[in-house]
């Protein structure tokens, strides 16, 4: 009898070892987990718009009356999920001080809403995080009259409707004079936190830089719909 139980123990241990070393053996364990990679939408600076405005003497918008009062839309990975409002953020090592300053201001802007809580700190398992980075990308199509200033987005791991977001926000240092700006930092951090593009020119999430760095009512409503639902 004793020898038999030893054999069973050996078999059980082997199974446990195989399963833990190779999770594919039990695919059902992962069926409730949904993972998305960072969805990136470039933030643009329109050379044409600024030129037009200079030539015609017009300032911002001629259709300001159509400004939407509705909430800024949400990025798909954070729709219909439950998520903590607390984030740990850190900068990649090569991020220069000027960019750190812009993102730190953006962090304060979002913290001031009271809707989210961004705390300096390294990425931790099962906690929301934001990584700030820089990159270089030259204009590809000169006829498009636009320059990419930055990009960012959420990247969620959803387990039974509970999401953990590893967001990213970055500035394009090929155009430092245009990209290292509070309006660009607040836009990209907005993406990392789950806000999508808005058609409202007063929103920081308008897809073309308007120099806007304070959140609109719609932006705050959008944040609330993610973190206070
Ligand atoms: Zn954008």
**Could you say what the CATH architecture of the largest domain is?**
3-Layer(aba) Sandwich
Instruction: Work out the strand percent.
Output: 15-25%
Q: How many domains?
A: 2
CATH superfamily of the largest domain: Collagenase (Catalytic Domain)
Bound molecules: zinc ion
Question: What is the CATH topology assignment of the largest domain?
Answer: Collagenase (Catalytic Domain)
| Low-pLDDT segments | 23-31, 51-68
Per the principal axes of the C-alpha atoms, what is the gross shape?
elongated
**Whole-angstrom Rg:** 23 Å
- Main sheet specs: 9 strands, mixed
Q: How far do the termini sit from each other?
A: 58 Å
SS-based class: alpha/beta
Order of helices and strands: HEEHEEHEEEEEHHH
Describe the structure.
This protein starts with a helix and ends with a helix. 34% of the residues are buried. Helices cover 31% and strands 22% of the residues. Helix 3 crosses helix 5 (182-192). Strands 1, 2, 3, 4, 5, 6, 7, 8 and 9 form a 9-stranded mixed beta sheet that branches. It is elongated. It folds into 2 domains: 1-29, no CATH class; 32-227, Collagenase (Catalytic Domain) (3-Layer(aba) Sandwich). It is an alpha/beta fold. The chain binds zinc ion (ZN).
């Amino acid at each position: 009898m004793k020898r038999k139980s030893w054999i069973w123990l050996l078999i059980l241990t082997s199974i446990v070892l195989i399963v833990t070393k190779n999770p594919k053996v039990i695919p059902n364990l992962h069926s409730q987990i949904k993972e998305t990679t960072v969805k990136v939408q470039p933030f643009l600076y329109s050379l044409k718009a600024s030129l037009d405005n200079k030539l015609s003497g017009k300032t911002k918008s001629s259709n300001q009356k159509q400004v939407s009062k509705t909430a800024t839309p949400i990025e798909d990975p954070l729709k219909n999920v439950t998520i903590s409002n607390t984030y740990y953020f850190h900068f990649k090592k090569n991020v220069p001080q000027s960019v750190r300053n812009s993102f730190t201001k953006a962090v304060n802007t979002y913290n001031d809403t009271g809707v989210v809580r961004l705390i300096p700190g390294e990425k931790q398992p099962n906690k929301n995080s934001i990584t700030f980075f820089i990159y270089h990308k030259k204009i590809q199509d000169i006829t498009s009259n636009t320059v990419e200033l930055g990009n960012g987005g959420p990247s969620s791991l959803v387990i039974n409707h509970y999401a953990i977001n590893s967001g990213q926000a970055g500035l394009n240092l090929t155009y430092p004079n245009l990209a290292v700006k509070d309006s660009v930092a607040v836009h990209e951090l907005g993406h990392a936190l789950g806000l999508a593009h808005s058609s409202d020119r007063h929103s920081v999430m308008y897809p073309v830089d308007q120099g806007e760095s304070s959140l609109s009512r719609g932006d705050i409503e959008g944040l609330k719909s993610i973190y206070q639902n």
